Amino acid sequence: MGRLSVLSVTDTKPVTGAYFILTPVCVAFLYLGYRRLLPRPIPGIPYNESATHSLFGDIPEMMNYMARTEEVWPWIADQVTKHQSPIVQVFARPFARPWVIISDHRESCDVLLRRTKEFDRSNFTADVFTGLVPDMHISFKSTEEQFKLHRNLLKDLMTPAFLHAVTGPQIYANTETFVKLWDFKTQVAQGHAFEASEDIYNVALDVIFAAAFGLEIQDSNTFAQLQQLSSAKNLDRPQSLSDPMPFPQFHRPATFEAIATLTESLEVSIKAPFPRFAHWVLRQLPYMRKARAAKEKLFSDMVEESLSKLSSGTKVKRSALDDILQRETAAAKKENRSPVYHSRAIYDELFGFLIGGHDTTSTTLTWTVKYLTGAQSVQTILRSRLRSAYAAATAEQRNPTMEEIIKIPIPYLDATIEEMNRTAQLFNGSIRTTTVDTTLLGYNIPKGTDVFFMQNGPGYLSPPLPVDDSTRSASSLNAKNQAGQWTPDEEDMKTFRPERWLVQNSEAGKEVFDAQAGPHLAFGLGPRACFGRRMAYLQMRIILVMMLWNFELRKTPAKVSSSAAANKLARHPRMCYVRLEKAKF
Ligand code: HEM
Ligand SMILES: *[C@@H]1O[C@H](CO)[C@@H](O)[C@H](O)[C@H]1NC(C)=O
Ligand SMILES: *[C@@H]1O[C@H](CO)[C@@H](O)[C@H](O)[C@H]1NC(C)=O
Ligand SMILES: *[C@@H]1O[C@H](CO)[C@@H](O)[C@H](O)[C@H]1NC(C)=O
Ligand SMILES: *[C@@H]1O[C@H](CO)[C@@H](O)[C@H](O)[C@H]1NC(C)=O
Questions:
Q1: Among residues 367, 360, 364, 358, which one has the least CA distance to residue 565?
Q2: At a CB cut-off of 8 Å and minimum separation 6, what does 302 contact?
Q3: Whose CA is nearest to atom 40 of ligand 1?
Q4: CA dihedral defined by 59, 63, 66, 71, rounded to 10 degrees?
Q5: Kind plus residue range of the DSSP H or E element containing 100
Q6: 24-26-28-30 Cα dihedral, nearest 10 degrees
Q7: What is the pLDDT of residue 210?
Q8: Cα–Cα distance measured from residue 319 to residue 535, given in angstroms and rounded to the nearest whole number
Q9: Residues 309, 313, 317, 321: is their CA dihedral positive or negative?
Q10: Half-sphere exposure (CA, 13 Å, Cβ side) for 216?
Q11: Would you say the CB of residue 46 lies under 6 angstroms from ligand 3?
Q12: Which residues contact 376 (CB under 8 A, 6 or more apart)?
């Protein structure tokens, strides 16, 4: 800039004077503009000093980390550890306010549960989801009228009555098919390990499709796999027992594939610095357009099918969609309008239901299989508790019924599921935006700041960082001692150990499940916590029980448990091997 202006001074005499004055002014303006665009920290909260000297803030650091690990959240938790402060800020979006990161369970509970007027759904969520489901309530602020209208459509889906009468039987039936598939594979594999994550992915997809649309078992992925596999010719076992059995995987039916493709595209918007733009670009690709068209066609067909069943006078509800359509009928009557069944709202909520319920369950279950394979004693204890609790099923050498699984309390089972939540770390945090100027741990936070409440660092998976009580809010101080704390032993905090959720009830001499034994945020907390957690619970309970009831997950050979598995087991734990033996009664 400086050199250029010197040249022009000598070349263009008539305007020399003007240049002399204008150039420094321009430079000053540009410089000031540049300074304005540089990341501007919130006073007092620790940050990486060098990030404030670049327009891109922490982004290069983050991208670098992502290139190495394909993950982003652990980097965020690392900042908390690096600065040894339960509150830090990072500059993750160009020209925008910093993100504030909190890793302190009491502060997170206080905000998510009690300070809901000062904190609402963040734009970050909308940025991620808008490309796929612009009209799903996950992106709406709690204060928006639309939020209430949409939730009203979904009102019944998580009630115990609906879950037991409609969703439960769908989950159970699909899980039975899954057990049959693994029975077949166990027999053929004869002690060889085989790849399990694809099967888990499929059964989770079946379950959520069935819950949404009420499919017949014959339409399920798992059933299709089983059929094609049982008629496959050359299922040769490798020589050595340390080599896995290479079962073929067959193509998923096209509709399932389309949903899987679209759901997986979210990964891109979660990780991109400009999520809306990144996802927009992706959506222009032919395979994405095709998947979207297939999805729209599926939904339209399903709505028609459901409507014709409902109008034919069948009283039996088979699916979430049946229920949503009836809710729309009721809402229309109340508002004195005619019902709109093929609406963006219904399509996007339906898709949201599929997105929310598939990958989450599938990933949690895959992690669980990994953990249980490594924790043989947990498996043995859990199986023996199941055998004695479902005494009738044990005596009759059959699977426990859905009613038995739902109704009979087993503290060790609850503890194992809770431990699945805690360790699977599907979402490493909850995100909120400040709706007013407010404070967090004693610092002033301006309105419109995104705050990340993390559960993958200090306080959860490593010892908590000290917080001075004088920095806490009145509501936080009043709520003191609500959730327990883990023994601050990092090794133990990272271990899969269901016992941490059990307390001995000295009077009854029995173990009791205690959900407040220690901190985790697997489903978020408060009014905007996970909508589907009751259903997730039901899915995991049924699938886990049926899996352990029928199979022993033996240790896998080093060859498959280390190399291939470890590094791929990130967001999509696609490589997970099992070595099964039929469990004996
Ligand atoms: C293991 C399974 C699951 C996990 C770990 C999980 C986790 C979460 C988390 C962490 C949130 C954000 C909470 C917050 O911001 O405080 C969330 C939101 C949500 N989840 Fe789940 N989820 C699971 C299963 C499901 C299922 C089965 C469904 C639906 C069928 C579902 C539907 C939703 C919806 C609709 C929201 C947005 C709620 C709102 O905006 O108010 N999730 N989930
Ligand atoms: C701060 O960021 C620079 C690069 O932007 C990086 O090299 C350095 O390690 C970071 N420091 C800390 C404490 O994270
Ligand atoms: C969550 O955090 C833990 C620890 O930092 C990490 O191992 C895990 O992969 C993370 N999960 C996701 C989905 O990023
Ligand atoms: C969030 O999004 C809304 C609507 O798109 C916008 O009006 C608002 O300014 C955004 N807030 C922030 C902090 O970016
Ligand atoms: C843990 O998971 C189960 C369902 O999987 C749920 O009912 C329970 O509320 C969860 N606990 C927490 C603290 O999120």
A1: 367
A2: 213, 321
A3: 138
A4: 30
A5: strand 99-102
A6: -150
A7: 93
A8: 13
A9: positive
A10: 2
A11: no
A12: 555
CB 485, CB 412: distance < 8 Å: no
Residues 454, 480: Cα–Cα separation, whole Å: 20
If one residue of 121, 152, 531, 534 were mutated to test the ligand 1 pocket, choosing by the most ligand atoms within 8 A of its CB, it would be 531
Place of tokens 């490593």: 462
Pair 106, 255: CB distance under 8 Å:
no
Tell me, in angstroms, the distance from the centre of ligand 1 to residue 3's CA. Answer: 57
Q: Is 344 in the pocket of ligand 2 (CB under 6 A)?
A: no
User: Which range has the worst mean pLDDT, 77-81, 101-105, 252-256, 464-468?
Assistant: 252-256
Residue given tokens 């496959």 in the structure block: 232
Calculate the alpha carbon distances from 144 to 51, 113, 436, 521 in Å.
Answer: 36, 19, 16, 25
| pLDDT digits 0-9 by tens, 185-211 | 999 999 999 999 899 999 999 999 999
Q: Which two tokens stand for residue 156?
A: 């019944």
Task: Give the global pTM.
Answer: 0.87
Is there a contact between 535 and 212 (Cβ–Cβ < 8 Å)? no
Q: Which residue has the tokens 């609850």?
A: 414
Q: Which one-letter DSSP state was computed for residue 43?
A: T
Best mutation site among 62, 68, 71, 462 for ligand 3, i.e. most ligand atoms within 8 A of its Cβ? 71
Closest to 389 measured CA to CA, from 577, 571, 545: 545
Q: Could you give the CA distance from residue 371 to residue 561 in angstroms, rounded to a whole number?
A: 11
- Smallest Cα–Cα separation from 299: which of 353, 247, 246? 353
Residue 85 CB–ligand 2 contact under 6 Å: no
pLDDT (0 to 100) of residue 315: 67
DSSP E strand boundaries for 146-244:
194-195
Mean pLDDT for all residues in the chain: 89
Q: Which residue has the tokens 């859905």?
A: 402
Residues near 191 by Cβ (< 8 Å), separated by ≥ 6? 241, 579, 581
Task: Report in angstroms the alpha-carbon separations of 347 from 1, 197, 283, 473.
Answer: 55, 29, 18, 41
Q: What would the pLDDT profile of 223-272 be if each residue is shown by its tens digit?
A: 999 999 999 887 889 999 989 999 988 888 888 899 999 998 998 888 88
User: Is-contact 443 42, C-beta < 8 A?
Assistant: yes
Is residue 410 helix, strand or coil?
coil
Q: Range with the lowest mean pLDDT among 30-39, 41-50, 361-370?
A: 30-39
CA of 492 relative to ligand 5 center, distance in Å: 20
At 404-417, the pLDDT tens digits run 999 999 999 999 99
Q: How many CA atoms lie within 13 A of 158 on its CB side?
A: 15
| Cα–Cα distance measured from residue 118 to residue 451, given in angstroms and rounded to the nearest whole number | 12
Dig out the tokens for 73 from the structure: 């959240």
